[in-house]
Write a structure and sequence with these properties.
The chain is an alpha/beta fold. The radius of gyration is 18 Å and the shape is globular.
Length: 277
């Protein structure tokens, strides 16, 4: 596994972002177009800007392994949902031009305030049907551009458990739809005490469909809060062992931290990777 990072972890110009990645000895990134002064999901783009991204990545020896394409796939405002789909079509063109193979998605929430906040309607049949309908529109675009769509289990989203993620994948049975595995995202508060079992069950259901892996951590308080990898309670020995056991050899993308925490988290992950069996 190669260690990478969310580009948004670093603030500043495009050149500064890639310089910092190289200085921190990271070799790949999940890139957000905002790091190049663009909208994360634009309606239009300038190829000259994309060329600058490609050039900066090449000069600093950083591989663009994924693009962030998170919009609310079940947005209760249908007009906003359709806008997200339209922007996704443009993002597919950009990803293909940048030769970036994965676009990460957000399966979404019926919460009108934030796609990262829970709403009880997320468990409704309407929410599930909205997710399926949006996915049916996105997949042909991904296929046309030879891209993989990566979805995560998110406690606040319509896909909030590994079992639901498995059901979703099985309905489509499409090689362009895969899993972004994030160990910290798998937990609801009541599951902390059964951490190894929860991780093992998630991999048993999803371990053969991982296209990208994330690395952040869980705080040790009662409510689920995310912190930098190595500063919380996530069982990284088990998490990394499972990634290796399921033959995952792709990028491990650090996120959920500040720029000042990068070196410490990277050292922690390198140490854990060195003896993960």
């Amino acid at each position: 596994m190669q260690l990478g990072i969310f580009s948004k972890t670093y603030e500043g110009t495009l050149e500064h972002v890639f310089q910092k990645m190289e200085q921190d000895q990271l070799t790949c990134t999940q890139f957000n177009l905002s790091s190049a002064g663009m909208e994360s999901m634009p309606l239009t783009y300038d190829r000259a800007v994309l060329d600058k991204i490609k050039d900066a990545a090449r000069r600093h020896h950083i591989e663009l392994v994924a693009l962030s394409g998170t919009f609310n796939m079940i947005d209760p405002d249908e007009e906003k949902r359709q806008d997200g789909i339209q922007r996704f079509a443009v993002l597919c063109e950009i990803a293909a031009y940048l030769e970036t193979p994965i676009i990460t998605l957000c399966t979404g929430s019926k919460n009108r305030e934030s796609k990262w906040k829970w709403h009880d309607d997320n468990d409704s049949n309407d929410a599930w049907e909205d997710l399926l309908e949006t996915t049916k529109q996105l997949l042909p675009m991904a296929e046309a551009h030879h891209l993989t769509l990566g979805i995560e289990v998110e406690a606040s989203n319509v896909i909030h458990s590994p079992a639901l993620a498995r059901k979703y994948l099985d309905l489509f049975q499409n090689d362009h739809l895969k899993i972004v595995m994030d160990g910290a995202n798998l937990f609801h508060p009541k599951q902390i005490e059964t951490m190894q079992a929860t991780l093992s069950e998630a991999f048993a259901l999803l371990g053969n469909d991982i296209c990208l892996a994330h690395a952040k951590d869980l705080a040790s308080d009662q409510d689920i809060q995310f912190v930098a990898a190595g500063t919380g309670i996530l069982d990284y020995d088990t998490y990394l062992h499972l990634l290796k056991n399921y033959h995952y050899e792709g990028a491990l993308i650090i996120h959920g931290l500040t720029e000042s925490q990068v070196a410490e988290s990277k050292t922690f992950l390198e140490r854990k990777l060195s003896y993960a069996l």
